[in-house]
Amino acid sequence: MSDAFASPGRPMAVLLPPRAPEPIGFPRLTWRHGLFFVVAAVLIASMATAQTPPAQPPASAAEALSTAPATPFSVIIKWSPLLLKGFAFNIVISIAAMTLGTVTGVILGLGQISVNPIVRKVSWFLTQFFRNSPWLVLLFFAMFMIPFQFNIFGVIMPFPDWVKAIIGFALPVMANVSELLRGAIRSIPNGQWEAATSLGFTRTQTIWQIVLPQCVKRMLPPWMNLYSLITMATVLASVVGVTEMLTLTAQVHAAEGGRPELFAPLYGFAGFCFFLYCYPIGKLTQRLERRFNVKT
Amino acid sequence: MATAPTADAAPAWTPDQPIVSVRDVHKSFGGFEVLKGVSMDVKKGEAICIIGPSGSGKSTLIRCINALVEVTKGSILVEGQEVNDPKLDQLALRRKVGMVFQQYNLFPHKTALQNVMMAPINVLKQDKREVEERARKLIAKVRLTGKENSYPGELSGGQQQRVAIARSLCMRPDVMLFDEVTAALDPETVKEVLVTIRELAEEGMTCILVTHEMKFARDVADHIYFTDKGVIVEHAPPAEFFDNAKDERTKTFLGQIL
Ligand SMILES: Nc1ncnc2c1ncn2[C@@H]1O[C@H](COP(=O)(O)OP(=O)(O)OP(=O)(O)O)[C@@H](O)[C@H]1O
Ligand SMILES: [Mg+2]
Fold it and tell me: Is A18 helix (H, G, I), strand (E, B) or coil?
């Protein structure tokens, strides 16, 4: 610590400001990405051919063409509008859960540093409970504990399954954000609190005007990480009957006669969609981490 | 700049009385007694230096003066206001007493100018334009014109420390506390900060400084206090203190340091 402070030319990295905005764009696509996509596509296709039952020797080329079952590729093309709609639904669930979870998580995280010992203990307990439960368990918990509709001042508010799923996913997000926030607040040097106090800031003012703005930067990379994880976890909603991408994939597979050679391409396609969505987020997270690197 | 007389000063206090009056202050952390009955008086416009070995309680003492640390026993009056009072009006105290820290503690997410303006605007709810004018003047005063929009991370230690001084001054305090404000700086940058403090003292700001800069203490201080193991061993005007120390502990300390 003291070394860092002792060199005035190189100020302590923890205190580095949001410097002159060096643009953080969407990760640039390079030829390596292209290569990766080609390899992935070939892999999915070859899995499909490998599982194609050995075809009867066709009498003629023309006959072979007319009777051959639809290729996996054409099946994916045919169903992709439906599947992508399902995927969009996963994204909607993930964004809604992340938003809800972040708002409640910040409240819970602030509760964890409250001056009121009861608020502090309750917030701590809730955080630990929801952080250490399997996500699927929390999803079931939300599904079966929340009634299908609420009566708020005479207005009947229906709670369809997908809304419950959002709540179910928001619970672990809340707990993780709460813990992230607590950690970030604790990582703010004590001197910041002292300086603020000596300038007459109250505790609440210090938290909102001085501590939290500094926490945002520290929390952003792990928060984005959490978002990736929750996005991928949204397929769990298929278990509780929400019609998202995985459910639709299974239905499409069944509609195509459950042919085993379609299994890998269809699920491969689903996985690939998630990859395409989450990989850039992961890349961006890495960049932010490098940029905000707090190590001296 | 002229310090306007504060309207909220306790009625009993008049400027000819000590502006800070510490009486038999004790402070324990857990069972460990850091201050064992410290008394001192600081008159308005005086600059006093507190020196002493590491761990002798210098920081603790000046933190007590602006209630960053709670006193276990004893009394501290700042302009007649009792600091060791459960019903203490903390804001009233903190607008009278400014503090500058060893590690600068600037807010890293705000520019130099914003750092200086933040407390008067958000805490004292003063007019933004008036505060900005004052802040720019203070930044000029600490010789940082042109650095208004730099973030702390873009400034050298000495520059950061001068912003921190301007930030405290923008609250228009009557007393300034400095806790080893040059200890984290390079020898070359120490000077620029000391020049700023010296100017302040010469303008009549009441300054209480903890420092290891003996030459500075000798030049600037009106009075020197030497602390060791939680007590004030002796205090005297600088000439007498440095040339005619009476206590053995003072002599040993000065022998080591000079
Ligand atoms: N918050 C605290 N909790 C427990 N002990 C403390 C606390 N603050 C200070 N101390 C102890 O009090 C003693 C005096 O500390 P203080 O910081 O006042 O010394 P100092 O004279 O300023 O020393 P230095 O020259 O190293 O800054 C030290 O032994 C320190 O460990
Ligand atoms: Mg100290």
Answer: coil
CB contact, 8 Å: B151 with chain A?
yes
Q: Contacts of residue A9 in chain B, CB cutoff 8 Å? A: 156
Please report, for residues A100, A237, B1, B195, the alpha-carbon distance to residue A169 in angstroms, rounded to integers and kept in the order given.
9, 9, 58, 59
pLDDT digits (tens, 9 = 90+) for B212-223: 999 999 999 999
Q: What is the pLDDT of residue A48?
A: 56
B106 to chain A, any CB pair closer than 8 A? The answer is yes
**Residue B2 pLDDT > 70, yes or no?**
no
Give the number of the ligand closest to the Cα of residue B69: 1
Q: How far is CA B60 from CA B35, B55, B231, in A?
A: 8, 9, 12
d(CA B49, CA B43): 13
- Residue A96 CA to residue A85 CA, distance in Å, equals 16
List Cα–Cα distances, B191 to A12, A215, A264, B101, in angstroms. 21, 34, 72, 17
Q: Per-residue pLDDT averaged across B83-89, rounded?
A: 89
* pLDDT tens per residue, range A75-112: 888 999 999 999 999 999 999 999 999 999 999 999 99
Positions in chain A short of pLDDT 50: 1-21, 54-59, 61, 63-66, 295-296
Among candidates B94, B109, B156 on the partner chain, residue whose Cβ is nearest the Cβ of A199 = B94
Nearest atom in ligand 1 to the alpha carbon of residue B60 is 18
Residues in chain B closer than 8 A to A210 (CB atoms): 107
**Ion ligand 2 neighbours, Cβ < 5 Å:** B 59
How many whole angstroms separate alpha carbon B179 and alpha carbon A191? 12
Chains A–B, number of C-beta pairs less than 8 Å apart: 99
Range(s) of the domain holding residue B252: 18-103+174-257
* From B26, B58, B177, B181, mutation site for ligand 1 pocket: most ligand atoms within 8 A of C-beta: B58
Closest atom, ligand 1, to C-alpha of B227: 21
Buried b (16+ CB within 10 A) or exposed e, A144-173: eeeeeeeeeeeeeeeeebbbbbbbbbbbbb
Is B248 within the bounds of a domain?
yes
**Whose CA is closest to atom 1 on ligand 1?**
B29
Looking at this predicted complex, what is its ipTM? Answer: 0.90
Judge: B123–A199 Cβ closer than 8 Å, yes or no. Answer: yes
Written as six digits, the tokens of B130 are: 């008036």
pLDDT of residue A21: 47
Q: B-chain residues within 8 Å CB-CB of A189?
A: 103, 105
Number of domains in chain B: 1
pLDDT at B63 over 60: yes
Six-digit token string for B257: 């340091």
Chain A partners within 8 Å of B119 (Cβ): 199-201
Q: Is the pLDDT of residue B192 over 70?
A: yes
CATH code: domain of residue B209: 3.40.50.300
**Structural domains in chain A plus CATH codes:** 73-295 (1.10.3720.10)
